[in-house]
Write the structure tokens for this entry.
Amino acid sequence: MVASQKKNVLKDAKYIKSIDNNSLNKGRISHTKKVQRIVSTAVVLLCVAFLIFGGFNLVSANNYAYKLTVNGDELAILASESEAQSAIDNYLNQISDQTGMKLSYDDDVQIEKVSADGVVFASTSDATSALDGKLNIMADAVGVYIDGNLSMYVADEKTARTAVDKVKEYYSADAGDSLISIDVLEEVAVSPAQVELEKVLDADSVVNMLMFGHIGNHYYYIADSGCTLADVAAANNIDAAQLSKLNPTLNNSELPLGTEVVLAQSEPLIDVQVAKKVVGIQELAYKTETIDNTSLARGNENVITKGENGQEEVTSKVVETNGVVVSSQRLSAVTLEEPVDQVIERGVKIVVASRSNSGSGILGWPLAGNITSRFGSRSLGYHTGIDIDGSVGDTVFAAESGTVVFAAYSGNYGNIIKIDHGGGLETWYAHLSEFYVNSGDEVSRGDSIGAVGVTGRTTGSHLHFEVRINDVAYNPLNYLD
Ligand SMILES: [Zn+2]
């Protein structure tokens, strides 16, 4: 396999392999008794030999050896019982130096006196090495419960608390003086538990578990050419499809050197909520004020003062969970630069006085077309508006902004729209085929309001258009542009 692992942000997890002095007490008591028995027996035998042979017949220590066995497996033969005992002590001391946990084992450990004939003695350190991995060591640890669920085993409560503090520190480090509060959302509790030492996590692994939900490496970094996602999956015993899902931006072709491949999704065991003060600059939007100008014709608008945004320094309370912002609340603001309000004047002047026929009025043409009948006296009686030629369906436009006050069928007018422009001014549009607006609608000058038709009393399709001021009909030509 050609991928190489790199350490995670935090240190790699390692299981603790250690033991301490106390651990041996159980085993030592039992085998010491056996040794004592053996020694006692030897002393008796020596005395008997002394009596039988009638003198000192020194038995050299070299004639005996001490065999160290664990669960029946012969690990080493040493020159003395004390060396054998030291080997066990040293092994356990080495491990205990790393943990401080009370340990025990339930293995059958024997130191047996045997003949030294032909024996090659092992040193104490050889025997110490030989013990590695042979003892089933149990630790008096604590179980860590997160919201009541057993999540892992650690050496002691302090280790668990320290790990939680480290995670809190990780997420609050950049807050500095602006930190308002920091909370772990879950309840973390510990309870004593005796477990195999291998199941007890070391301090760094506990932090990894709390932050990511798993221990050890979360990433592969491609170190050799020719490596594909499938290779990484195979090397890490991960389902290829699963790995693909975890790395949506990577395809299954050869990956460039240094590519970061995510091996596992983070599933934090605790959520750290950090609240902090954040100060930032924001734009202050300007307001727009509209002033009615009675001397400016209706439909006209002028910007008198151009609006300009200001600036303010805003202090917010920002809440993050595991480093992700979940809320932001404005606490205070200081204006750095006041915005300049925009002022617009709006023409509201209604021209009620009759004007000349030159067409310098204020209304827009509702329909482009020939005037087929003018305002005033005609053969069939007084004509209260003008008729503008048009085909059925031609669009009729509002002559000025205003409110539609009538849009319905009305006798000789047929379908008629009446728009109130304020100040007593109304415009009427008659014989329509269609309404595009309803009574109550606000319309702007030039809006499509209906279509030319032949409804009501009319001989052909045209628009009958009236201008009324305080309900008196005036010649529309005096008011049209
Ligand atoms: Zn008419």
